[in-house]
Amino acid sequence: MRFNKWLITLLLSVVGLLNLYHLGLNDIWQPNEAFYAETAREILERGNWLDLTYNYEPRLNKPPMTYWLTAVSYKIFGISEWTTRLTPLLSALFTALLLFYYGRKIKDALTGLFAAVVFLTALQVFSLARYDSPEMPLTFFLTGALVFYHLHLRERKTFFLLLSGIFLSAAILTKGIPFLAIFWGTIFLYHLLEDLLSQSFNLLRFLKKMFKPLLVGFLASLPTLGWYYYAYLHYGELFVQTFYSEVIHRAINPHKGFNWSFYLVVILWAFLPYSLHFYYSLLGYLLKKLKEEKEFLFSLSWFLTTFGAFTVAKGKIPVYILPAFGAMAILTARLYDKYHRAISVLNAFVLVLLLVAFVYALFWLGFAEDLLLWIVLFLSLALWAAVEGKHYLLRPAIAVIPILVLFTYKVLPWVEQYRPYKEVITQLKDQYGDKKFVCINWFFKDFPFYWRGKVYIIRSEEGLKKFDPKKVLLFTDKPLKGWKVVKKVELYTGSESRFLVMLKDLKTHRRFKEFYFQVKE
């Protein structure tokens, strides 16, 4: 027991330190991170926390919680890349803490510790903990709402119910009213399964059980409904159109077909190194342990509801499944005190898979001469081999450490040489800060953040007639007659959100284009 806790604590510390390492190294990622970084910066600049703007134009795509948290980070620690990412990082760490507390409550401390390890080592969690967006705060708040509601059901403490409502309110204020469905759906399915398994289903009693979560959900939604009403009063049709596009159309888009396997595949890579272990635990629990291990029934309901909701919705993005990762971590952690030969096979398979990926990346990216990376690999292999018996469920977490080190220590700095946004824009701001920054056709979403002001976007040279040419810093993809090029730069034009695609493009030098900053001669 003591060795188990010591090793888990060591793994959690290593993963936490790797999350902190180089947190502020990279310029603001685009397109998505730039929206949250710049909107938060404009909140402080304008002193207005309700009228959200990006590039000084209304930003109504999401409720304000993520912007507010980033703005608070800026207010306390200053505006920078690392303070931009402090919100998702703390959200990931606090989610792991919640899972530890929850696991300890429903079973024991080791269940909670294992769940924290499983969650923090998941590749999608590790990457999104370094990327400012609503997904990680949403996961933290929704996890808190569900965890504390289940603890309220188990222990009948009003304090847990109050915490559940507060967390739920924050979750809705992070990404919107639709996430009430996840909260209500989880509790509905949990009570239904509980009654069916005990063969005591009674419709009237079941409806009474649902009254409390319905009331909690309604009260928790009031702050977001208030913000919606405020946005509608101030922006009218623009808010309605944005809400329809961001929420309703994404869910029912008639032009997209039904893909039932999308998130089954996403989980395979996003939840590595424990995705196969999760599927194994899930199948074993469904087939054999539903009646025996009822402490995990709520986590099962949580996963099935989240997975089902986003599978049914037409709009699908890999990060949407993240709020289910807490439940998946708990369900995986139920295996920690069980010895199965199949788990040993899975451990070996995951080790080989990650080892091949690590060595391939070393040579493909040209890092094979870095001795430190090989040392990390051999130390991890030695520790993996030393962990035997009842500790063997820790092996996947150990196996993924070299990948995480490679990502933070080498890949992120290597990528940054192709992303000179901060260097270029801040230099030009110092030289031409008295001019208006105008972009023709091409516009990079982090420009306003580094320009610290409005960036004007026009479709053609005709649009320049609205400006005094002598007071313009122009950004185009070709030199213009009568304008002097003051800076030429080559920039990546693909989406940085598709990170592996971007790595391939950077390596092969695809989707790059020359751009010109110009002033009137």
What is the strand and helix layout of this fold?
Blueprint: H1 2-20, H2 32-46, E1 53-54, E2 57-58, H3 65-77, H4 81-84, H5 86-106, H6 109-121, H7 123-128, H8 135-155, H9 158-175, H10 180-197, H11 203-235, H12 237-252, H13 262-270, H14 275-289, H15 297-312, H16 325-333, H17 341-364, H18 371-386, H19 395-416, H20 421-432, E3 436-440, H21 447-451, E4 455-458, E5 472-476, E6 483-492, H22 499-508, E7 512-520
Structure report:
- With 521 residues, the protein is of the alpha/beta class.
- Helices cover 64% and strands 7% of the residues.
- It has 22 helices and seven strands.
- The strands form two sheets. The chain has a five-stranded mixed beta sheet.
- Strand 1 and strand 2 form a beta hairpin.
- Helix 1 runs parallel beside helix 19, helix 6 crosses helix 16 and helix 10 packs across helix 15.
- The model has no long low-confidence stretch (mean pLDDT 95).
Outline:
Helices cover 64% and strands 7% of the residues.
Beta strands, count = 7
**Poorly predicted runs:** none
Task: Sum up the overall morphology in one term.
Answer: globular
- Radius of gyration (CA) equals 25 Å
The biggest beta sheet reads:
5 strands, mixed
Judged by helices, strands and strand pairing, the structural class is: alpha/beta
Widest β-sheet, arrangement of strands: 4-3-5-7-6
How many DSSP H or I helices? Answer: 22
Q: Provide mean pLDDT, rounded.
A: 95
Strand portion, in percent? 5-15%
| Terminus-to-terminus distance | 75 Å
What is the H-and-E element order? Answer: HHEEHHHHHHHHHHHHHHHHHHEHEEEHE
Helix amount, in percent?
55-70%
